Amino acid sequence: MDLALALAAEVKADIVVANDPDADRCAVGLPGPHGWKMLRGDEVGALLAQHLLGQGKQGVYAQSIVSSSLLGSMAAAAGQETLTGFKWIGRIPGLAFGYEEALGYCVDPDHVKDKDGVSALLLVCELAASVKAQGRTLRDVLDDVAQAHGLYATDQLSVRFSDL
Length: 164
What we know:
Layout: H1 2-11, E1 16-19, E2 26-32, E3 35-38, H2 41-54, E4 60-64, H3 70-75, E5 79-82, H4 86-89, E6 95-100, E7 104-106, H5 117-133, H6 138-149
Parallel strand pairs: 4-5, 4-6
Antiparallel strand pairs: 1-2, 2-3, 6-7
């Protein structure tokens, strides 16, 4: 990602998107006032959910229990919390969208009932192009979500012990 972000800064790109080697995860980077910033999985999840909800996609919107509860607020009646791991999300009847904070997104469960970084990447690009045509950015969309549903701050925390 470092090379992609450096090139994006050089060419003044609007967005950086990338998949992991097996293409089941999608990462998104955006320019900001202090350089490029990688979005957290919960931020990308909120962007994708907002886009799908805005398109009127009906069904259940789900996140794993280690993900932000923002999606539940966004999807209100359709929101569902599941067990950790995508094996549970993909099994939900009527799933419209599911995600986990570790950059796994299921945006087209009719075709792929698992995390799929390629379809998520395409949807992120579609959303970015759509808001750019309106003179806006993905950061503006995140601000809209925060204004509508409140600010949800999340972060990963790892603790290492040398002696248990």
